[in-house]
Amino acid sequence: MPIQYISLKEILEKNIAHGGKSALITGKPDSGKTGLLHGLSSRIVENEICIFRGLKTGQEFRFPGHLNIIAFQCRPKFYDMKGKELDVGLKIINSNYHEVLKACVLGKLNVLYFPFEKERSYWVGFARFLIQRFPADYASSYVSLFIDEAEEIIPPPEKGKFRDTEEFVGALKEFRKTLISIYAATQQYFDVFWRAIGKINYKIYLRGAIVPRRISRVHQETVDSLPLGRGVLTGSFFGFFTFGNYPTRKLVIVR
Length: 255
Prior knowledge:
This protein is an alpha/beta fold. Helices cover about 25% and strands about 20% of the residues. Helix 5 links the parallel strand 8 and strand 9. The radius of gyration is 17 Å and the shape is globular. It starts with 8 loop residues before the first helix and ends with a strand. About 40% of the residues are buried. The mean pLDDT is about 90.
């Protein structure tokens, strides 16, 4: 593992005894949240089914490796900034979540698109399916979810459909026991449902993040002084780490 990620070894290594891992990344815009998600996935993509949430901004194209783009019950189109449609080799699946997971492969970042207008309810259904699956039926028994802009999937109750949020949190507490990991990113901790935060084991603070007052192990002044490419990890231990940022190779709009 490259030296800049060695301090994150604890949240990446998996074994059956400990199950899945969970981490929430917070930081202001351009602090490196998406780049860190890509960096984490690139370290485990050869051995785990890594699934990255498909966004309207096509953030998957910053990933340094190969992509496997899947659309479930939708047909997204990809455009460059001039409006020219791009051919991305999309896999379209309309049947069920089992076929979605069957389409996921090792060695590539599996990018999953759900219909944008009902995306939260689809993620709830997919999470429910994952905890009920037979792990040996797929490319790996381990599944890692990478959810950028997590506030859109698990928002505070006043900003989203409360039943969907509650159901996703209910699945979240079963993830560890069913070999599912989740790495989520949002600008600030209060942008996501507080009950979801309580189910996440590790917290990662990048530049511009606000530290909850109840957290005594991390001082706000420490986070305020972080340069780009450096963060603070808390969980079973406290530590600083460095990470590289993956530049945008091409700007993509998804509709």
